[in-house]
Amino acid sequence: GRGKEEKESRSAVLLEKLHAKYIASRPWQETFKLVRQAMVSQATVSSLSAMTDRLESIARQNMLGSHLSPSGTECYITSDMFYVEVQLDNGGQLVDVKVAHQGENPTSCLELIQHLREKNFDEFSKHLKGLVELYKLPGDNKLKTKMYIALQSLELDLTKMMHMYRLATSANTLETLLHGSVGLLSARSGGHLVSLHCYLSPYDLLEERTCAPLNLTDNNVPRSLGVSVSVTIEGTSAVYKLPIAPLITGSHPVDNKGTPSFSTVTNSNCVDLPACFFLKLNRPMPFSVAFIQRMGNATSIPVFESPPTLSPLYQLIVQSELRLQEDGSVTPPCPHNMTFYSVLPGQLHCYFLNGDAPVQDGQSLQGAIVSKIPFRHPAQVPLLLDIVRHQAAYNSLISSCVKRTSVDEDGAGLLQFEVCPLTDSSFSVSFQHPVNESLVCVVMDVIDSRQVSCKLYKGPSDALICTDDFITKVVHRCMSIPVTMRAIRRKAETIQADTPALSLIAQTVEIMVKNNLPPSGSPTYNMASCDGPNPMGLPGLTGGNTPTGGGPPGGPNFAGPITSLLPRCHSSTNTTLSRMKTISTVSFSLWM
Length: 592
Prior knowledge:
The protein is of the alpha+beta class. Helices cover 34% and strands 23% of the residues. The protein has a 6-stranded antiparallel beta sheet. Strands 11-12-16-17-18-19 form a 6-stranded mixed beta sheet.
């Protein structure tokens, strides 16, 4: 018709102008890009027919059916299991968007309304794709409907669990996200599944460009921020008994955290289905083997249907962090020497991540990338989220060393650090004493996502650095190894400046040790001087000066010479830790 001719004419004129302006000096690919951009800007979707044409085209791209109402103002995008109804006025302007699943009344979807009002067809198409994915389930339509009802029942229980937690604890948005039984729940909307936000690092709470604190509310947490999981149902080779009705009975919690009581699983509220619920991580995440086993134990369902390929956990954490920094889907290669640099105010750090160090039975700490976690009951979600949070906190600390910074390795003032795993939840950071020339280390034990226990180990004659409590407070505030190491060094410098008699104190401590008196001051390698149990399994000193193994069953058990008290520096460490001197002869002689 006439409209089509006008459109073709405008396009021809546009092409001529572009040709005259750019063809002489621009390569063909760049010209082609300009043509596409210009064509898109010219082809604004404004009329009713243009809008319905575009909607039907998007439906075809997603392998969905479509048809118009007799008036031409309603466009229906359809499948066997759901349909989307787009209501327009005679001028092609949006009136409403509704989604209906099989057996349900259509309900307005605010997200889809917003996308189409803004002519954001790509996001609208992603929602359609999400709806299609939701029903990629085994069996006929009747079986798929049962699976959808099971998912709905789970969603209702999880929503109630969040509300009961908040009612019992008066938690705000951030507290609900970090500590809530099911995190911060965002309801299913269009093709977006229910999501549970469960972990943010302190740096996630800062605006990327300005570093201003984010003011989080229930409705403005970006889906990509921090760690979150979406809740879905997928077909499985095994059959599981899944609820087809909400299982929470009443609204009276069983404790002061809002934990609900659940109905007993029976044949009337659950059915056998060739499917399982899944928590799908917003980004695939490295987990240690022990943490993967803990998740399987919590649900009695293995996380992986077949055994996964294992890799050194630190290598996986590094690759995951580099991928996040580069905002790409391609896994970047690990630097062959696992060495990274951090530029901080007044300090330049070099970190060697010694992920190949043997942790148990001569093996390095192993892990695998987890993208989804199976479960079958709403009561299992809090247990799984706590494990996810725990691993996320550990990963957050290790990845804080990972930067794409390049510096001159021979530059003056470069401070060397080695990060070495001890167990699946603890590690040591070794460095040269800020005042003496000995080697000291900080052991960080990630107890859970809310607690990191820190202990400083040094020779008894070494100068005071700082207290364990100081280190712990810094870690809790920043969850960053480089920031913590900078704070330790600055604190040591402050103590040195405020203590003119420091050398005298050091001599006094040395004399006390030689006389077999317990040294005072900062904690030392002597675990006997530390309060409480030995959570790290580090060796203590018993019966004089003989180092002994220690620690809980399954933890590392070191025994032998005093060098076992120090992080295991392998031959590969020498290049990156060339400036770090070994512990002084004086310190060694105290135990030999």
